[in-house]
Amino acid sequence: MLELRRPNEADRDTVLDMMAEFEELESAHDGGFWPSESFCYEEWIAANLDAEMGIGIPQHWVPSIQFVAFDEHGKALGFLSLRLRLNDHLLAHGGNIGYSVRPSQRGQGYAKSMLKQAIEIAASKNITRLLVTCHKDNAASRSVILANGGQLEDVRDGTERYWIEKRS
């Protein structure tokens, strides 16, 4: 059982452990953002809450919700960012949702479950049409998107753009 939710203070050790794994392996952590210099977990949690309201985010960003996926034992498995609207850059390259599974946990269906839950959360916020993108060489992400109903619109500069519609 996988739970996708906002991280909190109690999740500090497991989230930091996951971040360290991404960093050690120099693995992309789409859907999870943190400063590599002078990182403070508590400030990251506060900044995530501000970002939901569009407070203190860079001018080219949009309000978003930072989620972390946890297994039934509370181990952090991956990141997911739900962007609450699209700008020109996200429309071309990033989409409404970015996600990544920690390297040691890939290939177990977690990304598929994370995206499925994110689609439901988005629908609860009246976002029923989502853009999800992946690089044309990322077969695993493409499979996750297709398994969640993604319909390919086009490919732009190596980025495949899929729309997922949540029907009631």
TrEMBL record:
Name of one Pfam family that matches = Acetyltransf_3
* Domain N-acetyltransferase positions: 2-168
The record's listing under InterPro entries reads: Acyl_CoA_acyltransferase, GNAT_dom
Give the SUPFAM superfamilies listed for this entry.
Acyl-CoA N-acyltransferases (Nat)
The protein in question is named: Acetyltransferase
